[in-house]
Amino acid sequence: MAIVGLSFGRHIVELLHSTPASEFIELSAVCDIRKDLAETVGRERGVRATDSLEELLADPKIQAIGLFTGPYRRAELIRTVLHAGKDVLTTKPFELDSAEAEQILREAQQLGRTIHLNSPSPEPTADIRQVLQWRDQYDLGALVSARGDVWASYFEKSDGSWMDNPDKCPGGAMMRLGIYLINDILQLAGVPNAVSFASSRIRTGRPTPDNALLTLSFPSGCLGSIHTSFCVRDGDQYGNGLSLHFERGSIYRNVGSERAVARPERAQLSLVRLDGDSRVVEVASFDECSGVYQWEEFYRALTLRESISEEYINRIVAGVRVLESLRHLTVRRDRSPATSPVEAVAV
């Protein structure tokens, strides 16, 4: 696989030289429009470096492209890669235009090619599987509310990148941090019929917000909310905390100060329910949290020539439609609460 776009892709290069990624995927080349950056990373890892995507697409030995450019109009680049006969691994958020997202995913399906993301992932991660198991095992009933929180501490300056542009980075911190929680909640609650959004700029030097709150309303009556911020430094960054309240119990992921190890790739879950008059608590821990790259699944898709499933297409598009609504809200009314309908898509 070749990695294209090294601002974030450099992190993926590191992952490919450690387990479990290295057990399934071999890095063969790196590419960036900044040729000096590509050459630096290439020397570090002993692989070919180039500033030409076309050069990589012409190489029959390269089976897949890891595309880690910005999300704005990413579908156009993916189309180029697919029609060159390569499969694609990319990152969240997939796109900002839901029509473009759905069209390119269906093109991949028609071409027999695969596209995998880290969020939403092709298969439910271990933590989400445990939530679903507890829900069914203990008959917890309907999901009533879903609340997510994620934060970090940045002191960013404007640099003219896509992260400065409200049209390309709608909601600022919400799009950059909140997409994992958006996809998690949609996987558990279904497709929302409305969203609302509020944001503020506390200390960022960017014109996009560093503190944001998204709320989601679902046809079932479930209500969801997600808070994201680049303004909190407490040693527990990137936790993707999630509180799920069902009719007959609650499930928490990475919530509170009792986490043994505050690592973003680790998930600690607890279930609270009543058994008669007794309050029962169960706990589970996993070294895999939502948002991880499923390297083995990608390897299997490549070797078995598995294309992208209808169910996965629908989950990806559902998340993009939330971001699309967020984009409309932030372009129309900066830094103030607003609401907008979200077109439904089957999940």
Compile the SSE list and pairings.
Elements: E1 2-4, H1 6-15, E2 29-31, H2 35-45, E3 48-50, H3 53-57, E4 64-67, H4 74-83, E5 87-90, H5 98-111, E6 115-116, H6 126-137, E7 143-151, H7 173-189, E8 194-200, E9 211-217, E10 223-229, E11 241-246, E12 249-253, E13 267-275, E14 278-286, H8 295-304, H9 310-332, E15 338-341
Parallel strand pairs: 1-2, 1-4, 2-3, 4-5, 5-6, 7-10
Antiparallel strand pairs: 7-11, 8-9, 8-15, 9-10, 11-12, 12-13, 13-14
Helix pairs in contact: 4-5, 5-9, 7-9
Notable characteristics:
347 residues, alpha/beta, Rossmann fold, nine-stranded mixed sheet, six-stranded parallel sheet, 9 helices, disordered C terminus, nucleotide binding, oxidoreductase activity, NAD(P)-bd_dom_sf
Q: Kindly provide the radius of gyration, computed on alpha-carbon positions and rounded to a whole number of angstroms.
A: 20 Å
Task: Please identify the top-level CATH class of the largest domain.
Answer: Alpha Beta
Order of helices and strands: EHEHEHEHEHEHEHEEEEEEEHHE
Overall SS class: alpha/beta
Q: What portion of residues is helical?
A: 25-40%
Q: What shape does the CA trace take?
A: globular
Number of domains: 2
CATH T-level topology of the largest domain:
Dihydrodipicolinate Reductase, domain 2
Strand proportion:
15-25%
What ranges have pLDDT less than 50 throughout 5 or more consecutive residues?
A: 334-340, 343-347
